[in-house]
Design brief:
Layout (H helix, E strand, L loop, with lengths): L1 E5 L13 H10 L2 E5 L1 H5 L3 H4 L10 E5 L6 H12 L3 E3 L3 H8 L1 H8 L6 E4 L4 H8 L7 E5 L8 H4 L1 E2 L5 H15 L7 E5 L5 E4 L6 E3 L1 E7 L2 E7 L14 H7 L6 E8 L5 E8 L11 H13 L1
Parallel strand pairs: 1-2, 1-3, 3-4
Antiparallel strand pairs: 5-8, 6-7, 6-8, 9-10, 11-12, 11-13, 13-14
This protein binds adenosine-5'-diphosphate and magnesium ion (MG).
Length: 297
Amino acid sequence: MKIIFCNSFLDPKQVDPDFEAEWSAAQEAGFECLLISFEDLQEGNLLKALKRIMPASNEAIALYRGWMLKPFEYQDLYEGLLDKNIRLLNSPQQYKHCHYLPESYKHIQDHSPESYWTSDLDMESIRETVKPFGSKSIILKDFVKSEKHHWLEACFIPDASDFEKLQEVVSNFLELRGHSLNEGLVFREFIDLEALAKHSKSGMPLSREYRIFFLKNEAIQSYNYWEEGDYEDRLVNLDFAQELAQSIESNFFSMDIAKSQAGQWIIMELGDGQVSGLPDDADPAAFYKTLIKKLDN
Ligand SMILES: Nc1ncnc2c1ncn2[C@@H]1O[C@H](COP(=O)(O)OP(=O)(O)O)[C@@H](O)[C@H]1O
Ligand SMILES: [Mg+2]
């Protein structure tokens, strides 16, 4: 079983330093670890990006573990690897399904904050998009990421009907995201979550959130999402997440869940498992051991 990591920009024969611990843990667990160049992939130079990958003699299944890719970049990677007889565990459609919130929203909406989105960045269109919220508090993100570490300036909007504030937060958000903006804007009802702490740097309210990884729709690992704060009980009752996961169209994905003050579990977001970070709380050795065991079955 193969895992594809990104190489170091400065030392292309080495793994990206941010993934060193995962690389070692994956090797230790018995994965064959391979390197691609993230920068070449982003520049559209697929041949160069994959030059360190030897074609497999029989079709092999592989996982990618690395930086987030735009869906078209993932598609390039997927096709480039297929030319080498290597098939990534998630198809490009499956990747996009969990990477873009609007793609999987229909499966999670009964357990997730009410959300509306637009790809039209015109303020009038944005005003229309948030109308259903009335004067509720909302948060803003793009199809993939928020600017949660700029909580008050670029994420949280106290009153969706306050057009001036909306405009200000959107404008800060767009400036911060710059070229990294994913597709469009998503607005979500703000839910009061069970409090854990306030982030020591950004002041963002931290709540009891967990990240669960699913392989073939089965929960394989769950982690405390934040490093800070006292989680008390680590164990989450996974039944609701497990049940919902059956409808998700992906072989490997993450699900972030949180508990509302009203006592309900809600789904914060899904992510493709190949580009979801391991929380600081996670033990990479255990993660990769579990992964290879389940993949071998
Ligand atoms: N609708 C919401 N209600 C309350 N808190 C939220 C809401 N959406 C996001 N948050 C908080 O902001 C954080 C970041 O949101 P998230 O959607 O996970 O964006 P990112 O992809 O940037 O991690 C969450 O982990 C949660 O703490
Ligand atoms: Mg998140």
